[in-house]
Amino acid sequence: MVTSVFLHYVFNFLFSLHCVKSADTKYMETSIRNYFSNTRHHDPEYQEYKYAAKEYIHGEFLRHGLTTEYHTFQEQSVSNTENFQSVIGIAKGTNFGKANDLIIGLGAHYDTVKETKGVDDNGAGVAAMLEVVRQLTDRNRNGVKRKNTMIFVAFDLKEYGSCFGTSDCKLPDVQLAGSRHFLKEWLLPWLLSNYGKAVPAVIHGVIILDTVMNYNTSARSQTIPDAFRTAFPETYASVDSDNFQGDFLNLIYRKPTNDTYLAAEFLSSGRDLGKPKYEIESLPLNFVKFSEIPSSDEKNILINFMRSDHGNFWEIDLPAIWLTDSADFRGDMIQCYHQECDNLQVM
Q: What is the CATH number of the domain that holds 31?
């Protein structure tokens, strides 16, 4: 499972370059097979499996010692009566509640569209997040304490209204509801309660994991839209020089913002690992808020960079980076993104 190799970048970054152990691929594979290999949609016929996945995440957060809670919210455009739930786990650092705390968030959505089993999208992201939690706990038990607090969130209702993969996808159709409600209803009250006036200073950044398992060393397995060649000439040249192999993780961030510090730290951690076989390709975007881009043509090009929960953090100008295998631009997922064949066969 190549996700485990890419996770070393995340571990090295989050754990401040202490010795990082190999990822427990057995744990991740078992999590995916048992809880993230079938449809997790809000329609009634899928709710039993989705509920089991949510409860598993909650139980794992608790088992690994996180302060754990549900964030319950309603989305009126989906249902006037049904509640939805994201799962939140907090690993308090020694700086918790102080102005010098630098909070890092790690998030991954656990729901799916109803047409898919959702193994890569996004069982892989949730399993990766849980492995980070497991390693964090293991390090704490061995006396390695973090100074800074970490917040882990498994978002519900990310896929509601998602139109990606269609030719006429527009941002208003992509609701990303769970992270939107998390930011509006949970995060600020929690910060004010625990940090008071220090709130603006304590958010260091957020990492979103969404479709991170697909690794393909076949030539021409990676597709790149023509418009990207002009927008990201260095990245395009790098992928081209490798015969368009899908053997890299995409690092997506906004260049004019504090995302750049988060991205630079992540890249530095990756270089320190000394594993050049597993590449990171940077895709720096030249905007602050997607909603403020005046050109509809530019928005249509950039919509592919807004397809996960980082987009809601960007809209309120919180630093965030998105790590992804590029989803429907690579290998089997070109046909299987949001389709039945995103199943255990893609592992």
A: 3.40.630.10
